[in-house]
Amino acid sequence: MADVVEIVCYPIKGCAGTSMSDALLTPAGLTHDRSFMVISEDGVYRTQRRHPRLALIRPAVSADGSRLTLDAIDATARYGTVHLGITTSAPRRDVDLFGTTFQGIDQGDEAAAWLSEVLSTPSRLVRVPPEHDRVADGLTPGPSGYADSSAVHLLPRSSLVLLNRRMAERGSPPLPMNRFRPNIVVDSGPGQALDRDCGDWAAVPHAEDRTRRIRIGGAELGYAKLAVRCAVTLVDQEAGARQGPEPVRTLAGYRRAASGGVVFGAKFSVVRPGKLSVGDEVVVQEWGVAEL
């Protein structure tokens, strides 16, 4: 049996995540997930690809969704904590996400000044407007906030175990799960048969490649695409800095996609919203052929 062992929400694109015991899965993903984005003064998105210090920023959204807290800690300095009222009524502005123009609601000068200090470059914070209608592509298209593509990223622990074993063969140390920034981490009980037909599919490394429809708690997910990995996986999420060529170097040896790039984990769209909890059984309702 495969179960949810971790649920992680990333309120601000590129910033640190928050682990939760339960969460509501909305049509656009976990509540508040990637609903905020740091941008340059001219509206271009910022990610860890070019600004790894984003990983040091630890945002938290209040239970009622009205307040945002920003805090950041690194090895040499502690920045003050700011508490912001979230606005959805301010004027919209154009923002650029991977060359496509969307709208964002600027969250004000206090947030901008704090982010600019932490990142050492002029920055501002925007929120997805309520009328945001972006639809991410893939085998199962679906709504998405400011995520790179589809709303939900799912990754079994068995896939990371295999990667770490392959890296160890090259003399590289293991990497933690947060290098890959999943929303849902899946695992199975020890000693169970490695047979997807017996329901213990999560024990098989990269079985997520073949999943097409998944039920978790009261929600259902539809497979969209494999997760193409980029320079973000090179960033130590605790240090906010790049740390060598892994895992991309090792992944390139056995996880290269036919369409280009290396892949690890899978992206999903929300087919049916619902509540998720750590410990929920993850049931694959439909299987397909891996795109790899």
**Overall mean pLDDT:** 94
Number of extended strands: 22
**Which word captures the global form?**
globular
Strand proportion, as a percent range, falls in 35-45%
Which blocks of ≥5 consecutive residues have pLDDT under 50? 191-198
The secondary structure category is mainly beta
Radius of gyration: 19 Å
> In what order do the strands lie side by side in the largest sheet?
2-1-15-14-20-17-16-22
Largest sheet: 8 strands, mixed
Order of helices and strands: EEEEEEEEEEHEEEEHEEEEEHEEE
Distinct helical segment count? 3
- Percent helix, as a range, is under 10%
SSE topology sketch:
Elements (H helix, E strand, L loop, with lengths): L1 E8 L8 E3 L1 E5 L2 E2 L5 E4 L17 E5 L5 E6 L9 E4 L6 E6 L2 E7 L2 H11 L4 E4 L7 E2 L5 E2 L8 E5 H13 L14 E5 L22 E6 L2 E11 L5 E2 L4 E2 L5 H4 L10 E11 L1 E4 L4 E6 L5
Parallel strand pairs: 14-15
Antiparallel strand pairs: 1-2, 1-15, 3-4, 3-21, 5-11, 6-7, 7-8, 9-10, 10-11, 12-13, 14-20, 16-17, 16-22, 17-20, 18-19
Can you characterise this structure?
The protein has helices at 109-119, 157-169, 248-251, and strands at 2-9, 18-20, 22-26, 29-30, 36-39, 57-61, 67-72, 82-85, 92-97, 100-106, 124-127, 135-136, 142-143, 152-156, 184-188, 211-216, 219-229, 235-236, 241-242, 262-272, 274-277, 282-287. It has an eight-stranded mixed sheet with strand order 2-1-15-14-20-17-16-22. It has a four-stranded antiparallel sheet with strand order 5-11-10-9. A hairpin with a 5-residue loop joins strand 6 and strand 7. It has three helices and 22 strands. Mean pLDDT is 94; it is low at 191-198. The protein has 292 residues and is mainly β. 10% of the residues lie in helices and 38% in strands.
